[in-house]
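Sat 14:20. Reprocessing the chain from the morning session after the first attempt stalled halfway. Input below, unchanged.
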Amino acid sequence: MEADKTHHPPPAELFIRDHLAGYRTELANRRTLLAYIRTVLSLVAAALVFIKFWQHPVVIGLGWVLLPIALIILIRGLLTYRRINRVVRREEEKTGESHGPFNQSPSERER
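Finished this time. Tokens:
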């Protein structure tokens, strides 16, 4: 009987571990969205440079091709962010933990 207790952590540790995993998931989702946005900004900047500063038609054409690609990447990033966010919120509702740090206003967090 005593051996069974040594293999399982106490319930409080599980709650803290699970709670922190939720934070990590939320932050990873935000970090991924920011990476998509960074990629889009880089593509738009490259496209504008190609269009404005080069005179060769192939380079200008490449610039115009990069703009819709950037738009597609932005849309995909936003959709991915929303999908993962919905999954996280659904899991919070299942566990009854809808009062996470990212659901509160800044004044509520300070208490």
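Helices lie at 2-7, 11-53, 57-95, 106-109.
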